[in-house]
């Protein structure tokens, strides 16, 4: 379908990653407040649901096999997004949570463990999503490309989480988002390079959904998933500013009374 599919897939991964990483940073800043816990689920949905899952199926729009139609079963497709969000949540939790056990680990170990989980999250989502694919024939994966795709996901995710954990400035988080998006996209296309399809004209035509039939509702859900944390991120600094101004007013009143 042309190179625009690759560009759209990468842009989707960047948008989901940047939104999620910004939520991770905000969670770190709000860790002492009751609202801090809501940032982690939003980050998991943004990264796992949009940056990983939606990117994967956008990329699949550019995959075709001459001689057969491609269809997708609903069960593994739904399972793939649940796996992406859940394992992403686990990776983020490892990096950000204040735990007596995790706090004893050396500074560089936690991003490493979180990156390992995040890299496995991308891999797990990709290959679960691939099990949903049906063709008129058989599909196999080259083990060398599978292992290479896992390595790419783990290394790049570790670097991205290490940057995001200490990134207070926007350009650092943006850099981390590009790194994480590169991990997701590189893993996807590396894994797809190892796909081998043998078409069997005598096999029954596959049943299920076409990739475009569920991408439209997925796009709508993806927009909503990103809109909620983006709105929260936009409004949060204003709320912080208001609290700061209220504190200044209280100090001013106290000084006047004295």
> Main beta sheet: strand number and arrangement?
2 strands, antiparallel
Q: What's the shape?
A: globular
The end-to-end span amounts to: 73 Å
Could you state the order of secondary-structure elements as H and E? HHEHHHEEHHEH
How much helicity do the residues have?
over 70%
Number of helices: 8
What gyration radius follows from the Cα positions, in whole Å? 21 Å
| Uncertain residue segments | 238-254
Question: What is the β-strand count?
Answer: 4
Q: Any idea how many domains?
A: 1
Class of secondary structure makeup: mainly alpha
Strand content: 5-15%
What's the mean pLDDT score?
A: 79
Spatial arrangement of strands, main beta sheet: 1-2
Architecture overview:
The strands form 2 sheets. A two-stranded antiparallel ribbon has the order 1-2. The protein has a two-stranded antiparallel sheet with strand order 3-4. The protein is globular and about 60 Å long. By secondary structure, it is mainly alpha-helical. It has one domain (4-257). The protein contains 8 helices and 4 strands; from the N terminus they run H-H-E-H-H-H-E-E-H-H-E-H. Helix 2 (39-60) crosses helix 5 (109-131), helix 5 crosses helix 7 and helix 6 (143-165) packs antiparallel against helix 7.
